Amino acid sequence: MSIVVIIPAAGTGSRFGGQIPKQFQPLAGKPLIQHVIERFLLDEAVSRVVVPVAELLLSSVKNSERVVFVGGGQTRQESVIRGLAETEGAELIAVHDAARPLFTTELFHAVLDAARELGAAVPIVPVTDTIHVMNDDATVKQTLDRAMLGAAQTPQCFRAEILRDVLARAQAEGVEGTDEAGLAARFGYSVKAVPGDPRNLKITLPEDLELAESYVRQWSSQA
Ligand code: CTP
Ligand code: MG
């Protein structure tokens, strides 16, 4: 069973701000993206990681036996599509945000197992805030039923032919999704929810990085 991981890392981190995109910010002394790549490489089940990065970075990175860098796109979805070109022979493909350094191997394997069985799977955590639909004038329009909501994390895993089909159809129909699980559901595939991990946060704002630092400190003091 060949497993390839695509790690989209071509974003600019506009909400995070700063001089360098957030995926290159240090966490516990090394860039977020390095945490992510290294954790996947430690996993013997992973045959290759494919990392879409900004085109201008391509000359400064070096491919190795199990790590291949490709030029990313204007959107996350486009970056993942570029990554697909380096996944020939994969039976399962995982997609994981470069900005999510705290995923565990246990979570990854739970999602892989579900995808192997059902075709597509995503880690989901319950939504704890009340979510409102807003009007343009910053007033509340309507409240969603929280019991029906789930917040998606990565790694999201797919049988390769399903991910290829979903992304080809999205591209053909001009549909832009913020994750692959949502696209797969939209195009009629059943997508299994696996219990996510609240600590597997996506670094979006500087505060998220502070929280991630505190988790890493807790873990290293427990180790
Ligand atoms: N991503 C990508 N190519 C893009 C946009 C995003 O590969 N054109 C990647 C990001 O690098 C990140 C992941 O997709 O690892 C999740 O996206 P997000 O958290 O939204 O990151 P950014 O788009 O960089 O941040 P922002 O939306 O705040 O600009
Ligand atoms: Mg973004």
Shape label = globular
Summarize the amount of helix as a percent range: 25-40%
Bound molecules: cytidine-5'-triphosphate, magnesium ion
Structural class: alpha/beta
Which whole number gives the mean pLDDT?
97
Q: What oligomeric state is this? A: single chain
Short description:
The chain is α/β, with parallel strands linked by helices and 223 residues long.
Chart the SSEs and their pairings:
Elements (H helix, E strand, L loop, with lengths): L2 E4 L19 E2 L2 E2 H10 L4 E8 L13 E5 L4 H9 L7 E4 L9 H14 L1 E7 L5 E3 L5 E4 L6 E3 L3 E4 H14 L6 H7 L5 E4 L10 H17 L1
Parallel strand pairs: 1-4, 1-6, 4-5, 7-12
Antiparallel strand pairs: 2-3, 6-11, 7-10, 7-11, 8-9
The chain binds cytidine-5'-triphosphate and magnesium ion.
Commentary on this structure:
By secondary structure, this protein is an alpha/beta fold. It has six helices and twelve strands. The protein has helices at 32-41, 76-84, 105-118, 160-173, 180-186, 206-222; strands spanning 3-6, 26-27, 30-31, 46-53, 67-71, 92-95, 120-126, 132-134, 140-143, 150-152, 156-159, 192-195. The strands form three sheets. Strands 1, 4, 5, 6, 7, 10, 11 and 12 form an eight-stranded mixed sheet that branches. Strand 2 and strand 3 (30-31) form a beta hairpin. The radius of gyration is 17 Å and the shape is globular. The two termini are 32 Å apart. The model has no long low-confidence stretch (mean pLDDT 97). Bound molecules: cytidine-5'-triphosphate and magnesium ion. Cytidine-5'-triphosphate is lined by residues 8-16, 21, 23, 52, 72-76, 79, 97-99, 202, 204. Cytidine-5'-triphosphate (CTP) binds next to helix 2.
